[in-house]
Amino acid sequence: MSRPSLAALTLALLWGGAPALPAFGQDEPAAEPTVDAPAGSPAADAPQQEVTPDEKTDDEQPPADKPEQPKGEADEKTAEEPAAEAEAKPEPKPELLVENLETPVGLAIAPQSGDVLIATRWGVYRYVPQTHAIFIEVEGYDVPDTIGEDGRYEIGPLSLAFVGDSELVVGGGSAPEGEEVVQTFEIALEPRGDDPQIQDTDAKQTVGPVGPAAVGGEGAGNFTGVLADEKAVYAATSSTTPKGWILKAPLEDGKLGDLAPFIAAADLAELGGPGPMAWDADGNLVVGLWGGQMPGDDAIAVFNAAGELVAKYEGEIGEFGGLAYSPKTKALYVTDMGLSTDRGGLYKVELKDGAMNAEKVLSLDKPAGLAFAPDGKLYLTTLGTAVEGKTTPDGDEFSPGALHVIDAGL
Question: Residue 261 and residue 241: Cα distance in Å, rounded?
């Protein structure tokens, strides 16, 4: 089966009720999505007439100065209102940006442009928020691997990060264990448009594979998380190695060294293999560990720069798909994929006294990757649940994966 053309993906978006996207290579911006009129709807596409204060209807005018209320009972109600408003705080609503994506998992925000890079079964897509367009950036992952119960999800690359402003780090997921590699690709400021796409064989740098002699088992595979700083690139090996290794490739003068075992995460934390990773405010490596399918089986571990276990936090969520800190509030957010439970959703997590205290922000259908933009918008992917018999207008199978954004000041 070959990768659907971008044109086919766009048609599926239009047909499926997702935001209308420009055709491949189109420079004309699409209508910006709004809360009341999703992009692609007639209301959103129609020109919007600006209304000045003098032209507003009576219902739209600001209320006149209210008379002073009598003291007593009214004051008591006013004192109670903040608590009531807090209880009635609406749950953030994710806005659907793109659908018909097959197994979208890892996300990364391009530092220069703010574009959203999405790891999918077919390669890396590039969503451009400013023009509401999507492009294929890196392709060629023709032989997939599978994850999930009964291998229900075909996967290509699994995780993304950036080294510097323009070098995209891609953690592999489609090669056999012991043959997986970490690659980097040079990403331009603008999408490639009509230019030929980058092929998976055109990497700027490639490190790995890491075989059984170094990490045990059948070797390193399924890089469920990649992360980079000024000194190194790190890759999580999920549970494919007996000790749940996090690998490290040193970075010097822009050149990556050999990819080698760094932290035996599962061994040190006495739990399952590592998944998504993020840096905390102290420069520690924060990692979601997969321990099992039942609530309480998983944990979040924190390792210092030397690879030593600093802390482990246990709780009732797990099956981590994404993990990210808000640039605005500094709060930690994670996704529980809910592949084997009903916990699927976005959670705000406080790490304290050995426990991860989780507040469910909203339920989602098998959420995966998370990435905050500098302005605080949260992009996330969902694997979704396939609808039997649902196809694109061309008769192709419709993939349930999607990209969403939450603009809620998380």
Answer: 11
